[in-house]
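hiii so um. not sure if this is the right channel but i have a protein structure encoded as tokens and i wanna go backwards to a sequence. like what aa goes where. can anyone help
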């Protein structure tokens, strides 16, 4: 089932994908770097799963960014 365009997880996943791709990682490489399964990570990027703040922290550290950067440009 495709998430509605108003789903915050959809927008968060798109932001996350842009960050990952800008660093040159494949989903599989990046998921391994974050110690997350590739399948789980793929669901996050597609907006099919809502992640915890703790996982956001791991992801931000792996990207070398501040955790708040993951939430920039999300809709209100």
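sure thing!! here u go:
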């Amino acid at each position: 089932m495709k998430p509605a365009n108003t789903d915050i997880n959809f927008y968060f996943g798109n932001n996350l994908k842009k960050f990952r791709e800008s660093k040159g990682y494949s989903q599989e490489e990046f998921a391994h770097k974050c110690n997350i399964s590739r399948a789980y990570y793929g669901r996050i990027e597609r907006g099919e799963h809502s992640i915890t703040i703790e996982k956001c922290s791991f992801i931000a550290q792996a990207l070398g960014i501040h955790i708040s950067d993951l939430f920039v440009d999300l809709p209100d």
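oh and The helical segments are 8-22, 27-33, 38-45, 53-63.
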